[in-house]
């Protein structure tokens, strides 16, 4: 099967309204969406971050896809797993819901079912599995643990929060990349619309800095969408464990030399992008130990809600005047940062 990777460059979010016809044509050509079909639109809402932070899928990209789907007469299932409805307000998604009279489907409210992949059980979203079409709308970002996050990692949010918390205990092993890929394989999206207009460089997935790149990546294959973006920003793709695991598992729908690239090329480079260092073995451990020493809590922002304590898979946080970290137990999984409602947990620059 040949896969189309459509690259649109030089964009700003205010330009997206001009792409409605283009994106509508791409969706219609590559997805067999029938009237009354259930179409899951899986976005990335890692936490209560404003769009300009570049930690979540920008509402402008969501609006573009919604406007492409509405004329098709399908049932749009706008979904993600979130901790509370405030996330919708802060990220700008609530405005889209109100504008188009859309319901938001919080995955945790619709149950999970057990799926076994390579001998391991996953509690996977029943809602996602029930949909006729799945369109993933990720944000491209750096990630301190997995090096990058994009189309493959976006589907990690389809398992239960409890299991996501437990699986973070694999972060020091290559197994975590295999786990991420196994979850992606349960329901491989039919289409990817990746927000790479403003990405996050530096200490992603939530502590980095916004970086304008101007790309919108449309693909029938999430593995190749990730491959394109990682290559674009200057990563050596053969060193990225998630990508290598995906290719070795043959999750990509075709081979690299069979890829049809429309509107761009692998010669495109954004090498000044501030990538995270990619280390393995003892060097990775030293790097992680260094990062742990940079954690801090902004006392002026902390509201002592205790969400970070509950989120930590390693029981490394104690709530006193402000949260205190046990650096020996901490594995830098970033769960506490992603769930903090006031962005009080950060690192010293």
From TrEMBL:
The keyword Metal-binding applies. It holds the Pfam family DUF362. Keywords: 4Fe-4S, Iron, Iron-sulfur, Metal-binding. Transmembrane segments: none annotated. Its cofactor is [4Fe-4S] cluster. PROSITE patterns: 4FE4S_FER_1, 4FE4S_FER_2. The keyword Iron applies. One of its GO terms (molecular function) is metal ion binding. Residues 293-322, 323-349 form the 4Fe-4S ferredoxin-type domain. Ferredoxins are iron-sulfur proteins that transfer electrons in a wide variety of metabolic reactions. This is Ferredoxin. The lineage of its organism: Bacteria, Bacillati, Bacillota, Clostridia, Eubacteriales.
